[in-house]
Design brief:
Layout lengths: L1 H8 L3 H6 L1 H29 L2
């Protein structure tokens, strides 16, 4: 898990757990990526059904 966290966000899990500001930045980034993926999925679905 440590390598995945560092690879994806440039921060180790221990630092993520201990530093609130870092955790909030990462969670905001994850939320943005999630919303973007949902929009992309929705757009693909519309293209397939037209």
């Amino acid at each position: 898990m440590e390598k995945a966290m560092y690879g994806a966000h440039g921060v180790g899990y221990e630092r993520y757990k201990q530093e609130h500001e870092i955790r909030m930045q990462i969670e905001k980034k994850r939320e943005k990526e999630y919303v973007a993926s949902q929009q992309m999925t929705s757009n693909l679905g519309r293209k397939i059904h037209t």
